[in-house]
Design goal:
This protein has about 750 residues and is α/β, with parallel strands linked by helices. About 30% of the residues lie in helices and about 20% in strands. It has 20 helices and 23 strands. The strands form six sheets. A six-stranded mixed sheet has the order 8-13-12-11-9-10, with helices on both faces. The chain has a five-stranded mixed sheet with strand order 15-23-22-17-18, with no helix packed on it.
Length: about 750
């Protein structure tokens, strides 16, 4: 086999010859599936046959060992069936490849856009690039770059209940409704809209109750049943039932004493039976090994761990599956029926990806490699970065900056000339750092750049290692630059050296040396704009009080610096909204091992005023809300109400507004209910003086709570309230409704 043909699927003709010749992976065993050369095309290769029949035929032809190989995500090729090794990949905010691909803002920044269409468009662009890479290897013998398959491990829809969590950059925030809307948009964008073929197979990560990094391989999360269904599960259900994600990854941790990888209630009763999930469950990398070495401390062997995982509902894993499935079946610990179901689930997805069909039958096989890092995708990345930026403070309308009045600008801070890619990032092509983006917007003013202080060494290999900085020498330089400048742009925050996979934060504060820098710079020049570049929330009460203006700018991908410049100088009117609560201080946060969110987590249950509330964000425009109308004032538990409201731009600046709908039960005598729950949102653009009417549909089921005695959701009769708001703490209109008794 030549290098150029190494990754090409075997043609149906070759498959027939191989099958007829009895060419299997185990030459020392007789081939029970030997097919005569004159036989008709196998049913699994008949593109006109129903997919269920094709899959059943394929599984029936596999030996026990071949089935075991098929359930190893990185196993050898099954050449008898023309099936290459899976070669799964990552595409959290761009394709992870050995060459540049378009890099979008990290997921938490995309959540801050509150723009589901944009998130969907981003996923379409990413999946186009992923398909193009796959197509390149199948169409062009000279195509360069590592081979990648079509099963992608994204998105991460774990919820950021824990504000210290190191992987907040990978998720969509603290609210299940917002995470569900973003997740559905991303999944459908990745998987495409062809009724027959999938563009990619999306994998939801990590199911479930996963948001602590310390000891995650043996962590046991104790969660009340009500909290599981009300808080930890709704967004998963949305992405499975509505988004139709094809794969779900079981997380390392245990829930209430049972590791997720072998949790029959979680993977089978909830996921496959209650939600009718038709795809496959995959373990996290090393999932079986984690159970043996972590949860069970070697008290359970690999055959038992593999058998119990499969019987619980895990379908796909690592080499431990391939090595131990045959023994588990022969010892009677794993039934052939469950094994066949697992193989069928995996093969159905691969068949829907077109791996058994001629390339010309699949429209996605026509996606050209020209889409990779295309100008269209670069512009989309810029739009995403612009929409993600949140304006936290703007005292006396300090922003946008007027370039005509500025002769000297000091750009200070360790993040000014630093690019932070984020977790599971590919390679960005010519990323624009904040300093460069600012320079691109200023041509007549003098720019003074001072690092100001050092920064933690990044853990990600995709990020440059900052040179050693002497804080004692840099601080006086920063103060001198601030005094000389007409305005200071201070850029501070975190990197993956502070928050990342395997590494939770221990404080919500800025690193101490960056706090000292901020205090010194603002003391020297109060005309300072602070740009926060982080993933997780930063509790910065001193900056809130003393900074003239402040932006939350996240890790914004390859166009982040350009977007920051656009917002600072008024070419973009910011409209991002916080996808999580920024707590006032660490003392306001409950313990990390408390999984009952009603004890003080998130905007729904936070005790006391936060520093910045969930859904918060300012604009250069001002908006007026009026004329809230509900379709009914009294309704039954099986009805849907419609809420309409008028929103008007009453400023001289065109801008976007994120209109948010919250619901709450006014009185509940038995259980603690949330202060409010997000139940709708829409990002709209308004010209100066323009008015738009926004409508939201709210099923009564969205007013329900989970009754642990009945083990189901219940809508209680009584009084409720609908809020139309600009944030969870900025209610513009409200109206009461009543749910009638059954």
């Amino acid at each position: 086999m030549t290098a150029s043909s190494k990754y090409r699927p075997l043609s149906p003709c070759l498959v027939l010859i191989a099958a007829g010749a009895g060419l299997g992976c185990f030459a020392d065993e007789p081939d029970p599936l030997r097919v005569p050369l004159a036989a008709e095309k196998p049913l699994y290769l008949n593109i006109n046959a129903p997919i269920a029949q094709r899959v059943a035929d394929l599984v029936s032809r596999m030996s026990l060992e071949e089935k075991a190989i098929a359930l190893n995500h990185n196993g050898p090729d099954l050449e008898r069936f023309g099936l290459r090794s899976d070669k799964w990949n990552q595409c959290l905010h761009g394709v992870w490849w050995d060459r540049p691909t378009t890099m979008f803002p990290v997921s938490i920044a995309m959540a801050a856009t509150w723009d589901t269409k944009l998130v969907h468009d981003e996923a379409v662009a990413i999946s186009d690039e992923a398909r193009a890479i796959y197509n390149g290897w199948h169409q062009d013998p000279n195509f360069k770059g590592a081979h990648k398959g079509l099963i992608y491990r994204a998105p991460v829809i774990n919820i950021s209940r824990n504000p210290y969590w190191g992987r907040i950059n990978e998720c969509y925030g603290e609210d299940p409704f917002l995470a569900g809307r973003m997740g559905v948009a991303y999944v459908t964008g990745l998987q495409g809209d062809d009724p027959h073929y999938l563009k990619l197979a999306a994998t939801l990560k990590h199911f479930a109750v996963n948001n602590v990094e310390k000891d995650r391989q043996k962590l046991n999360a104790r969660v009340p049943e009500r909290m599981l269904y009300e808080y930890w599960f709704p967004h998963w259900r949305d992405c499975v039932v509505e988004g139709k994600a094809q794969s779900v990854m079981a997380s390392y941790n245990a829930i209430n004493g049972t590791p997720d990888n072998m949790n029959h209630w979680l993977l089978t009763e909830v996921l496959k039976k209650q939600w009718h999930f038709e795809g496959f469950v995959v373990s996290d990398l090393g999932g079986v090994n984690t159970m043996v070495q972590g949860h069970f401390q070697k008290q359970k062997g690999y055959v038992d761990a593999v058998a119990e995982s499969l019987m619980a509902g895990c379908d796909f894993s690592d080499k431990e599956f391939m090595e131990n499935i045959p023994g588990a079946v022969r010892k009677g610990k794993l039934t052939e029926a469950r094994l066949n179901d697992a193989v069928a689930r995996v093969m159905k997805v691969r068949m829907r990806l077109g791996e058994f069909d001629p390339q010309e039958n699949n429209s996605y096989s026509k996606i050209s490699t020209n889409v990779i890092c295309s100008e269209e995708h670069r512009q989309l990345a810029l739009q995403a970065a612009r929409e993600a930026i949140v304006l936290l403070e703007n005292k006396a309308d300090f922003l946008p900056l007027n370039r005509r009045h500025l002769k000297t600008i000091a750009v200070i801070g360790p993040h000014a000339d630093l690019f932070t890619a984020g977790g599971y990032s590919g390679i960005a092509k010519s990323p624009v750092k904040p300093l460069e983006g600012i320079r691109n917007h200023v041509h007549d003013a003098k720019i003074i750049h001072v690092v100001g202080c050092g920064i933690a060494k990044p853990r990600s290999s995709n990020e440059p290692v900052p040179s050693a900085v002497n804080d004692e020498q840099e601080l006086p330089k920063a103060v001198a630059a601030a005094k000389e400048a007409d305005v200071v742009i201070l850029i501070v925050g975190t990197t993956t050296g502070i928050e990342s996979e395997g590494h939770d934060r221990t404080s919500l504060a800025l690193p101490a040396n960056q706090e000292r820098l901020a205090e010194a710079v603002i003391g020297a020049n109060p005309r300072t704009v602070v740009v926060l570049m982080s993933a997780g929330p930063l509790a910065v009460p001193w900056l809130k009080q003393h900074a003239r203006a402040m932006l939350q700018a996240w890790w914004l991908g390859e166009q982040g610096g350009e977007a920051i410049g656009d917002v600072l100088f008024g070419e973009t009117n910011p409209a991002g909204r916080l996808p999580y609560t920024i707590y006032a201080s660490d003392s306001q946060v409950p313990p990390q091992d408390e999984y009952d969110v009603s004890k003080g987590f998130t905007y729904m249950y936070v005790k006391g005023p936060p520093l910045y509330p969930f859904g918060y964000g300012l604009s250069y425009s001002k908006f007026n809300y009026s004329n809230l109308r509900l379709s009914v004032e009294k309704f039954s538990a099986d009805q849907t109400i419609t809420a309409t409201v008028e929103v008007k731009n009453i400023s001289q600046h065109a801008g976007d507004e994120v209109v948010q709908l919250y619901a709450r039960q006014l009185h509940h005598p038995n259980i603690k209910r949330p202060a409010a729950e997000l139940r709708g949102f829409e990002r709209i653009g308004l010209r100066p003086g323009e008015t738009k009417t926004i409508s939201f549909s709210v099923p009564a089921s969205k007013l329900a709570f989970y009754d642990e005695k009945k083990h189901t959701f219940v809508v209680e009769p009584g009084k409720y309230e609908i809020w139309i708001a600009s944030s969870s703490a900025d209610i513009r209109c409200r109206a009461g409704i009543q749910v009638l008794p059954y």
